[in-house]
Amino acid sequence: MAKEENGKGLSGKDLPRNDLQSPFAVRKIKWEGLKITLHLLRYLRPYRMTFAAGMLFLALSTGTSLAFPKLVGSIIEVIEGKSQFSINQITLLLFVVLLGQAVFSYFRIYLFSQVSERAVNNIRLDVFSKIITLPVPYLEERRVGELTSRITSDVSQLQGLLSFTLAELFRQAATLIVGMSILFYTSWKLTLFMLATVPVLGVASVFFGRHTRRLSRKAQDQLAAANVVVEETLQSVHVVKAFTNEPLEIHRYRTILDRVVNLMLFAARFRGGFASFIIFAMFGGIVGVIWYGAALVQAGEFGLSDLFTFILYTTFIGASISGMGDLYAQINRTVGASERIFEILGETAEVSVEAARNAVAGDIEGRVTYQDVHFAYPSRADLPVLKGVSLDIRAGEKIALVGYSGAGKSTIVQLLMRFYNYQSGEILVDGKPVRDYGISELRKNIAIVPQEVMLFGGTIYENIAYGKPSASREAIIDAARRAHALEFIESFPEGFETIVGERGIKLSGGQRQRIAIARAILKDPKILILDEATSSLDAESEKLVQIALDELMQNRTTIVIAHRLATIRKVDMIYVLRDGRIAESGTHQALSTIPDGVYANLIKLQFETAIEKY
Ligand SMILES: Nc1ncnc2c1ncn2[C@@H]1O[C@H](COP(=O)(O)OP(=O)(O)OP(=O)(O)O)[C@@H](O)[C@H]1O
């Protein structure tokens, strides 16, 4: 997708990136993907000593398991009377080897798990930190379910690599190399005979593996899409129920699940065919080896115990080779997952976590100026929303933005918060362009009381503290008092510890608004944005919210996004937005008397709607 550099002063870094690949895009060159996956190893670095210890135990346990066939062979030697040891001695040695194997395996698994769990934790944390510091347009372009699956399923894939696949790769390779050397040493003739079957298996493995991988990747993508359906449905379960659209959602889910099943079954046919081929070829090979080996024993070329050892090693090696196919598939899946993860990690965040943590609000007065601001949303670049907006709000002044729905009122304040970059013009705070502030520094000076108050799952106390996590208990209680929220909070048996949000009690609209006001009071910013609730509260709540707002607005520059005009008579200045520009500005008195003015018409419209209600 081409990207347009439009407007002045926009550096490439500031621009939201639209040219990202789909996360399910077919990957390019394998080697590139593998290189990306190797970057993962840096997550192992802090735990390299533990990893090295794990490798040591892995080598020891591989060594002991390789000693096993040799010892079994020695027992046969004893039976044949060709050994200086007794059966008991060798059995004892076998037990020692088994014990060693058991102990080494325990440490191997525990140490590798320590490394992989911690490394994966760090990857998850990095991905999450990156996601939430990415610019708003990037996040808007993606579905929530898609981003969640980056953190959950893709990272889990990587865990497989770090905890199991790497170790297993080493083990299989060691088994293969050591086992083959022993085989050659025992009988090169029989080894060459045995090897005649291996290339056949190798070719088949590559052929089938490629097919099944492609199919299972398709199925994985479909499954991810199915999960998105579940998430979206659950997120808006009220809407689904209100429209009685349960059957529709079930149908949507079933259709996509059917696709998954079909793909999975198609892949299963391949896998089944592959498994039966391998079983036949492998056991066929072993039968061949026994046949040829028996002939060699009869010819006196080597002993029965050697044949026994040989066959055991052959099965070990056979298992390693077929395991390699699985490992290959797993590595390939991991490459896909890590590509998707590094794609996110490689994005440019709007602010680093460090900068966000260290940002201070600074000492601003709160003057806000818009100079001929032009803006179109990145997702709809051809549709200008603001076409030259100019405003000048003095520090401490209260203004209201008014206009028909969709006129761009919310957009104006989103630009002040730098959720998006405007294409031209300038927005200044205290005479300094917003772009010259650190993003967190700027946002620390602004508080929003939104239309729809979002409460996090947790206590009321935590929800208020969200305004300023470092605040003391006294400050939080004081903020609740000043927001006129204390009365209702204290009426709950658990008071501030009452759980709200998804699993807790549901607060009324007015109560939620007052929590949001308490949050804003606690944040104590110089600039305040009130996105007025569209739905009206009952008279009592309305009065309390209004008192709380009056308290909050004191000594702050306030921008009210007005949906209901009744509440804005007290503001110093009203700006009426039409067609992406300020069409009228003035006090309520002045604007309502303009004949055929936009504001006068809006008032008339609201008045008529109010009358119709009765
Ligand atoms: N994230 C977005 N991406 C693309 N277009 C958007 C986005 N948000 C808003 N718009 C569009 O921008 C225009 C202005 O929207 P905005 O929300 O600023 O209007 P508003 O005046 O606040 O409306 P309302 O009073 O209904 O809240 C609308 O046409 C809307 O469809």
Write the topology of this structure.
Elements: H1 30-39, H2 48-80, H3 87-133, H4 136-141, H5 144-186, H6 188-195, H7 198-235, H8 237-242, H9 246-298, H10 304-345, H11 353-358, E1 368-376, E2 384-393, E3 398-403, H12 409-416, E4 424-429, E5 432-433, H13 439-444, E6 446-449, E7 458-459, H14 460-465, H15 473-482, H16 486-491, E8 499-500, H17 509-523, E9 527-531, H18 539-553, E10 557-561, E11 573-578, E12 581-586, H19 588-592, H20 598-613
Parallel strand pairs: 3-10, 3-11, 6-9, 9-10
Antiparallel strand pairs: 1-2, 1-4, 4-5, 7-8, 11-12
If you had to describe this structure to a student in words, what would you say it looks like?
Residues 368-604 form the ABC transporter domain. InterPro entries: AAA+_ATPase, ABC1_TM_dom, ABC1_TM_sf, ABC_transporter-like_ATP-bd, ABC_transporter-like_CS, P-loop_NTPase, Type_1_exporter. This protein has 614 residues and is of the alpha/beta class. Among the domains are: 30-345, ABC transporter transmembrane region fold; 453-524, P-loop containing nucleotide triphosphate hydrolases (Rossmann fold, 3-Layer(aba) Sandwich), CATH 3.40.50. It is 62% helix and 10% strand. It has helices at residues 30-39, 48-80, 87-133, 136-141, 144-186, 188-195, 198-235, 237-242, 246-298, 304-345, 353-358, 409-416, 439-444, 460-465, 473-482, 486-491, 509-523, 539-553, 588-592, 598-613, and strands at 368-376, 384-393, 398-403, 424-429, 432-433, 446-449, 458-459, 499-500, 527-531, 557-561, 573-578, 581-586. It has a six-stranded mixed beta sheet. The radius of gyration is 35 Å and the shape is elongated. The structure holds adenosine-5'-triphosphate (ATP). Adenosine-5'-triphosphate binds next to helix 12. Residues 140, 377, 379-380, 385, 403, 405-411, 563 line the site of adenosine-5'-triphosphate.
